[in-house]
Amino acid sequence: MNRLYDDHDIAEALSPKSLELILLPTEKCNFRCTYCYEDFVLGKMPENVINAIKNLIENRTPHIDNLSLSWFGGEPLLAKDIITSITDHAHACCSRHGTRFHTAITTNGFLLTRELVTQLCEKSSLSMQITLDGFRDWHDKTRVLANGRGSFDKLWSNLKSLKTLDSDFSITLRLHLHSMNIDSMKNLYKLIEQEFGNDHRFHTYFHKVSDLGGNTVNGATLLSNSDYLSAMDEIRGKTNPNPDQPISELHLKGYICYAARPNSLLIRSDGTIGKCTVALNSEKNRIGKINDDGSLVIDHDKLHPWFSGYSELSRPTLSCPLATMKSRTHAIQDKS
Amino acid sequence: MPFKINHELIFIENDSSVRIADEKLAHSIRKSQESSQERSLLFSENPNIRCNNSGECAGEKNLGNCINTGTCIF
């Protein structure tokens, strides 16, 4: 197990020369996915937090080689103005200091426009991740707009529209799989191959639906790892994926979750600093805050458990520190 | 053998930089980072300079070579 990591993997995760900021410009969402774990309580990032992030970027870019801004939410595109404002600032700082600048967006894709993609591509290298839960029949059942309507047709039309752009970007279509949507996913996969198969900017990546908390996931529909692997083969119509192109989370080697990477920080819309984008309301995930001048206040007693995987080089802990923290808590509760 | 690090020696400073509170270990990690960096510097890519529609770097005097990520290497 330990040999899955080499010293470069570890050194990269600890490198003070790279900084990833996972930013939540709003925690509101225009979707109500039936399995979502978020509560949408916090709204748009206020001006003082936006400026604090700009100050942090300004202060760090002279000292780093790589800056990555990863936009998450809620639905981040409900706050496009914040994304473009911080991106413009980061681009100016990175250009001044020769720092590589990458932008990533995890979005439901409903509000994605050619204008925004063009604009962001001019400022940074851009990657996007968009989730599909199957072809229209399934996608519209689970990835539902807040007004109750389906979202597939609009998303598909947005994707086709991006295909006609000249800009270079990367879109990962994340395909959520469970025991009920395998046939629907097969239809969708065919359509993706037809529409985007010859465009190197579009990729697919499977992800198994799993129980991340809350009461919204039906355990009976979750796939075992072996059933999941068989389902992917069935959908793709082939086996033996190219090892250089992992097709799902089961195919990743040397993966260290951003939550376990010391050079990656989550900044919520209220300026709270965390590590994990799933356990948003866990006290363990409130590790600090950002001050107006861009400096950070970190509670290291809360931070250290997120890094426990480095002590034993444990794959489960480095690839998902949250899962290990949860199981340790349960073990302590069971003993008492 | 990959580095094993007591996780309580890993700190995030108030400027967001990472600090390892073990000088010997921090030195070894730095060495490894530098060797990774040297490998990547064989081709120095600048994602801030994009390629234009003619396949040339869009920066001053079109210096550099376009690569298939749409950015330029020097």
Beta-strand residue fraction of chain A: 15-25%
Average pLDDT of chain A works out at: 90
> What shape does the CA trace of chain B take?
elongated
- Summarize the main sheet of chain A: 10 strands, mixed
Explain how this protein is built:
The complex is a heterodimer of chains A (336) and B (74). In chain A, 37% of the residues lie in helices and 17% in strands. Chain A is α/β, with parallel strands linked by helices and 336 residues long. In chain A, strands 6-5-4-3-2-1-7-8-9-10 form a ten-stranded mixed sheet. In chain A, strand 3 (100-107), helix 4 (114-123) and strand 4 form a beta-alpha-beta unit. In chain A, helix 2 (47-60) packs parallel to helix 3. The radius of gyration of chain A is 20 Å and the shape is globular. Chain B has one helix and five strands; from the N terminus they run ββαβββ. Chain B has one helix at 23-41, and strands at 10-12, 18-20, 45-50, 65-66, 71-73. Chains A and B meet through helix 1, helix 2, helix 3, strand 3 and strand 10 of A and strand 1, strand 2, helix 1 and strand 3 of B.
